[in-house]
């Protein structure tokens, strides 16, 4: 059974829940968020769910899915991550890369890393290990989820029945998202540097 078949089976069970189905599909982290959101865009185009409820569901589900990983790092520690990470498709090398990014760039990387495949989900774990404040983590995560959700809603709305092939269509837009992520990280590092210089 391929990803499309798995996604379709799950979505058929969640479609009757409307917007809540989108939130739950994002929270259980079985299917890539790109496909879930593209399906959400398809539901919007079909009139099954309104844009505002779908967007709020995507924001809630996306934040909660990352909070679960954050809590795993914060309350379970690295041993728990290494033991249970494989069940949520996070391997030790994903964690190693995410930890290096977090140490090097600081909390602002929580936003930028959301657009980088290798560390997109794993970056939440070192934030938990470092006991990053919940409010800061949620803010940066939500700010990244907004453009991500809008892009894939748009693609799903546009390609409709071809929503399962969204990753192919998204490849055109991903370089622009990466540019936004790099620019945002650069601005964050500049602000932090200026702040630290002012405190000396």
Helical region count?
10
Report the principal-axis shape.
globular
Oligomer: single chain
Average pLDDT works out at 81
Query: Order of SSEs, N→C?
Result: HHHHHHHHHH
Helix content: over 70%
- The percentage of residues in β strands lies in under 5%
How many domains?
1
Which class of secondary structure composition applies to the elements? mainly alpha
Strand segment count:
0
Question: Low-confidence spans: pLDDT under 50, at least 5 residues?
Answer: none
Q: Output the radius of gyration.
A: 17 Å
User: What is the CA-CA span between the terminal residues?
Assistant: 59 Å
Q: How would you sum up the major sheet?
A: none
Structural summary, described in words:
- This protein is mainly alpha-helical.
- The chain has one domain.
- It contains 10 helices and no strands.
- It has helices spanning 3-14, 19-28, 33-46, 51-84, 92-105, 109-112, 124-129, 134-159, 166-170, 174-198.
- It is globular and about 55 Å long.
